[in-house]
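Structure, all two chains, one model.
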Amino acid sequence: MGLEQLLPAIAGMTWQHLVMIGVGALLIYLAIAKNYEPTLLLPMGFGAILVNIPLSSALTQIDPATGEAVEGVLNVFFQAGIATEIFPLLIFIAIGAMIDFSPLFRNPSLLLFGAAAQFGIFLTMVFAAMLGYDLREAASIGIIGAADGPTSIVVASRFAPSLLGPISVAAYSYMALVPIIQPPVIRLLTSKRERLIRMGNPSNKQISKKTLILFPIVVTIVAGIIAPSSLSLIGFLMFGNLVRECGVLNKLSLSAQNELASLVTLLLGITIASTMTAERFIRLDTLFIIALGLFAFVFDTFGGVIFAKFLNLFRKEGNKLNPMIGACGISAFPMSARVIHQMGQKEDPFNYLLMPAISANVGGQIGSVVAGGIILTLIPLFA
Amino acid sequence: MMTPIVEKALLIAAIGMTGIFLFMAIFYLLILLLDRLMPFREEKRAEEYIEEYGKEEEEEDL
């Protein structure tokens, strides 16, 4: 009996498997050493190692003796949790329970930045179509610009499941890299004078409990009437928020924010890794998707900042917006707001942009989900 | 370059961006409406209610 029969995994190992094991190790390194989205990148990294050892029982394999398929646990998780969209939607409940919409009520006009900063999604989609991807794939790649992992997963799993691995890796990696991606783009688009603009005293306006309870209900009804396809995304987000705000489900709200979020993220990460097999991942497509994801994030920032500059054309001196706030219209919360506040303080230590930045960032959380819903509605009509 | 797919993508992008702005504008109006219909009112503490209620009762007794 030869070594190949004793250790068939060694016989089946190719350089592609070794590269993917290296990719898995890199993701684990980034999660632990650099603290880049560790809750997701660590399980994904470990999962990538798990599925790239030849004949891994974590994946469905054909038994050579019987010729029958032996189901692997990760494939079972994939079918149950991602193909059905259950995992990302459960994450939406958790995110909804974490969001406090009060800053948005204090500065409601900043909600519009949550729309402007979705520009990168659509520009990337057009660019991906120019590169030869079909509409469904192009939309799935563009949605990386939502800067919202669960939305990217829902859209990609519906329209381009074969690209789910690289899209998820790109989405979560760039979310972690917001402090590196946004500042140079903002500096390029704004003058020092613009970055020094102060935005008045932060509002301490109190919001009534009834308003905060009614908001998720009314938003769900309105969104459902206008675009029913978006309801699974917006509805679950708003349900989580209602659990938070109702005041009678505090235990459930805390569970959603902690235990539910942690457990589902763990399962989501390791399950997505089941798509990161060497055959699927080591392709030119993966490099294109990762490059296009960066393009999407850059143009999200561009869209938000340019929109703020556009609004300033119509605002009086002394009432102008600091255009850096526009960059907070992406969904990466609260990282983007923190980055902008720090940039503002670097230019002028007495400029406090945190409150308006948080308001725009909350708007971005709604905007990314709306963008996902709109793509889910429009693509089937055109593809 | 301008394949039918790219043309469709451009159309989706135009409709999509308009749609997001429309949604956000509606949400903006909703926020204004909710805030106007249900403004924040300082909630009275339980002791204040008891104090007020007590005074009313005393007045009635007199």
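The mean pLDDT of chain B is 82.
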